[in-house]
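[step 3/7] fold_predict: job queued, chain A
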Amino acid sequence: MKNILVTGATGFIGYELACQLVARGLRPRLMVRRPGRAPLIAPLDADLVQGDLLSEPSLRRAVEGVDTVFHLGARASFESYRQLAPTHLHGSERLMRAAIDAGVQTFVYASSLFVYGNTTDPIDETTVPRPALDYGRVKIETETRLRALADGAGITLACIRLPHVYGAQSVLFHQVRKGLVIFPGTMRNRCGHLHVVDAARVMIAAAEKCWSGDRAVADDESVDWRQFFLVLKASYPRFRVLRIPEWLGHLGATLATPFVRLRGSPSLYTRGTVTGFNLNIPVKPRLLWSELGLEPEFSTIIEGIPAVLDGSLRFRWQHPMLDRRS
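[step 4/7] structure written:
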């Protein structure tokens, strides 16, 4: 792993991954779609390149001379399959084909825990993907197509199925800092969580070890949202959670859909978002970690959430979903 491309580098997880690569003394190439967000990563000792998953020529230029690709770029929202497929599915295929032609050896893809459906049993190596969201459906289809291309070309492909990743730059903590989190559901469903630092560490370790496969990952304790907010409130009591019924969340998202479509940009407020917040998707402890010979830096939210609050003091950040600059 020497010549590296990161897509989605101005996003929440991609930014952290780029920072960790630079901290290791590497100089990654960071692909930027929206020039207005480039100043976020301009201070990093990295090479910036203009690129778009919808533009094959820009992708071929981005992967030239690269041996490792970290792919986190795509439309980051829980919208319809029709809205997600152009970047997630077709854009990822374009990137993989360009990577094959460029002689890339390792490809790490940021997939999602939403490839699975509702389950009370912890997800492990044997759990069969059954997505309940269009977001999960497009993610598992993307994994399948990337795997076929990678196997045919002899590229090492790691599909890391990330859980709820939290950090100072996440939309959730943006809402916490504003003082109000609106939660559509009972908050009793358990799901996997992971500090953004550990999400980036797992992806880098997969590339370093040439790990190939598809695997879910989370910290050591899948907890429900009620527990998540209790831990958060113990350290930061300056916010409140307004819980509304799930049906009301779906109704509000349905009514907002026509206005969101007129705006054209991705939205946080969709029926898929409401469904996702109410799925049971716990993860078996240490899944993938042991295969990578790695320990989580933040093994539970009890360690991770205070670290996020500390990180929130250091800089100002605008999540790409909230940033309207082109």
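[step 5/7] annotate
The radius of gyration is 19 Å.
The chain has a mean pLDDT of 92.
exit 0
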